[in-house]
Design a protein that fits this description.
The structure is a single chain. With about 550 residues, the chain is mainly alpha-helical. Among the domains are: about 220 residues, no CATH class; about 80 residues, no CATH class. The protein is about 60% helix and about 5% strand. The protein has a four-stranded mixed beta sheet, with no helix packed on it.
Length: about 550
């Protein structure tokens, strides 16, 4: 939802205020009756979080005829798809291909094994979708629905039932319409882990419900397997405060058991991919291909790199230089504004959070979450890049703070008039109307998230067209120009390259290409230049 929807919501709130003044007194009870109905539903806690998750799944599935399964286009997405395919085969990684130089691609390791550079959580979720439903996007779909349910459950631990449901409503756009649902880039899986940690933490601390230590541990493993750095930024203060409040074996034995099991599996996954249990695939990829580190306090690497394909480093170097300069004081607040717009769906929720920030900080119940926001805010300053899904472990905390700020707003009165109560209702209805209208327009004009993409989103369609016109097995040599960018990368192959009906390979010149032609004898060979046309020329 962009800034236009914020303006629409403000206008709608004004319209509702005018209507309220002229509305007959007998109709004033209608909003109260609807609110009481929602409160009754919210008190049925299990029904609320299960129902919300099912609602997200059903609505997105119902939209498939007009908003189809998204096509990948960002290099992160293709890397996750490789990972999902690998897991779906029952493997943690793939063997080094004898002619791996032809298949080098952005964010993908070719040696010591053929694998994604990313941690495994997102790929595991997508692999579930691929195994059960035949397509990895259904793993994304399931995770987004589970996120909606988990967020509602987490909020129920911090807020009264009605306000927990209200906070989950604020996160509805995030679960249903954002790129977390409508791409392969990730976010929902990490946020599920964070919501489990935050929801279990409050139940252990406040209610002394030790059985939730198991869920805390599961959430901790998920966030580390999804985003190790940001997950650790959440876990360190959570574990410290948990240890200060309760040191009993009821709490720490489950955390220790599941933590050791998760860490052992993570180490084994690293070992299978990189050959060392403590060496992340991300680190292996960085040392082979990149010179710009992920953190601004680290120096640019001077070690030689095998830089092929596109010039990622000039763009990365510019971002790195900005992250180490005073321009970060402008860039990072803008990044956070984009993040909050993404998480809240509409920035109309942000002014109450800002206005009541002092109350949130001084609230004994909310202070831990406020501290978490300070911690992740500080952590974001040292990262070179900062995208919305980087803060996914903290999604539940952001929604809880937004809902609590609306509780404060609801108590606002002016000249004996219950203005706060009216504003809370009007804002919720305005956001719902703006959200539905915005997404309906996007669907009607084919401008939804996932449908405005680069040319390589047509990669699958191009393969199908080739197979339809020329049945058989093919190899496509891709020839890039210097002006091409990494977002125009086409050389992505499945986990089992040799079994693929269409293989994409880098054009390395006539002499080198003979090696691949000999290796794949019996296939048809084509040449493809992305910037010229979508047509394949016989090689």
């Amino acid at each position: 939802m962009n800034s236009h929807e914020l303006i629409y919501c403000i206008v709608l709130v004004g319209i509702f205020a005018a209507i309220a003044k002229i509305m007959p007194a007998r109709l004033h009870d209608l909003p109260r009756k609807f609110e009481r109905g929602l409160s009754c539903l919210a008190r049925r806690r299990t029904l609320s979080w299960v129902g919300l998750g099912v609602l997200v799944l059903v609505v997105r599935a119902a939209l498939l005829p007009v908003w189809p399964i998204p096509k990948p286009s960002i290099y992160d997405e293709f890397s996750y798809l490789l990972q999902a395919g690998t897991f779906a085969y029952g493997r943690l990684t793939n063997s080094l291909h004898p002619l791996w130089q032809f298949f080098e691609s952005t964010y993908i390791l070719q040696q010591p094994t053929y694998a994604s550079r990313f941690p495994p959580a997102q790929g595991l979720a997508m692999a579930v979708g691929q195994v059960i439903f035949g397509h990895p996007w259904f793993g994304v779909w399931l995770s987004a629905g589970l996120l909606a349910a988990t967020l509602c459950w987490a909020l129920q631990g911090w807020l009264p039932p009605g306000w927990a449901l209200f906070g989950a409503f604020i996160g509805l756009d995030l679960c249903l319409f954002s790129y977390w649902m409508n791409s392969y880039w990730g976010g929902a899986v990490t946020a599920i882990g964070g919501a489990l940690v935050i929801g279990a933490w409050i139940r252990i601390i406040r209610a002394k419900r030790w059985r939730y230590a198991w869920l805390f541990a599961v959430g901790a493993v998920i966030v580390v397997l999804a985003r190790p750095f940001e997950g650790s930024v959440l876990l360190i203060p959570a574990l410290i405060t948990l240890g200060m409040a309760d040191r009993s074996a009821h709490v720490w034995l489950p955390i220790a058991l599941i933590g050791v099991a998760g860490a052992s599996w993570f180490a084994y996954d690293n070992y299978r991919v990189t050959g060392h249990p403590l060496r992340l695939p991300y680190r292996e990829y960085y040392e082979q291909y990149e010179i710009v580190p992920p953190f601004s306090f680290m120096p640019i690497s001077t070690a030689p790199r095998t830089l092929r394909h596109f010039d990622l480093e000039s763009r990365n170097r510019e971002t790195y230089d900005r992250a180490r300069s005073l321009r970060l004081l402008v860039d990072r607040p803008l990044d956070w504004l984009a993040l909050l717009r993404h998480y809240y769906g509409n920035l109309i929720w942000l002014p109450p959070v800002a206005a009541f920030a002092p109350l949130l900080w001084h609230s004994r119940r909310m202070r831990f979450l406020a501290i978490l926001m300070v911690v992740i805010g500080a952590a974001s300053v040292i990262e070179v890049w900062w995208y919305p899904h980087y803060a996914a472990p903290f999604a539940a905390a952001l929604l809880i703070l937004a809902a609590q700020s609306m509780r404060y707003l609801r108590q606002w009165t002016h000249n004996g008039r219950d203005l706060g109560h009216f504003l809370v209702r009007a804002m919720a209805v305005s956001v719902l109307i703006a959200m539905v209208a915005s997404e309906a327009r996007a669907i009607a004009t084919h401008r939804t998230r996932g449908q405005v993409q680069t040319k390589n989103a047509n990669k699958g369609s191009a393969e199908q067209a080739l197979l339809a016109s020329r049945p058989g097995r093919h190899v496509i040599f891709v020839r890039y120009r210097e002006a091409d960018t990494a977002h125009d990368e086409w050389i992505y192959n499945p986990a089992d390259i040799d079994a693929a009906p269409v293989i994409w390979a880098r054009d390395m010149g006539p002499i080198e290409n003979k090696r691949l032609i000999h290796y794949y004898a019996g296939r048809s060979f084509w040449q493809f230049e992305p910037e010229e046309s979508m047509a394949f020329k016989p090689y």
